[in-house]
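Incident log, structure service

09:12 report received: a user says their structure output differs between two submissions of the same chain.
09:20 pulled the input from the user's history:
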Amino acid sequence: MLSKRKEAAMMVARSLWAAEDALDAALARAAELSGVLVMARADANLSAIVAQDAFEGAAAALGTITKARGQLVETHRRLTEVKNQSGLRTMMVGDGDSKPASAGVSRHLQAVA
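09:34 re-ran on a clean worker, output below:
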């Protein structure tokens, strides 16, 4: 029975980590887009009025992704409680200082000017 709980916990943990990684990547890309929009407008010597709705849309998307990330962080905290309640308190599944790298997920950020 305990081995089935461990297997289930690891399946959930892998899925959680993948979702966290995806949101982090989306957050980084949305922030990058916001910066690129500002630079592109300036480089094209366009008025600040031009594409204001696009700036607002990108900023709104960034805020939405940030909120979604916060909700996933809360989910992670709650799942840690479930893990503890399930008798798996001593099983480390990524709620410490670091977590295993997710397969196939790029983990680099790129500076934007």
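09:41 both user submissions now match this output. Likely a transient worker issue. Closing.
09:42 reviewer note: Residues 27-81 form one domain. Residues 34 and 57 are 9 Å apart (CA to CA).
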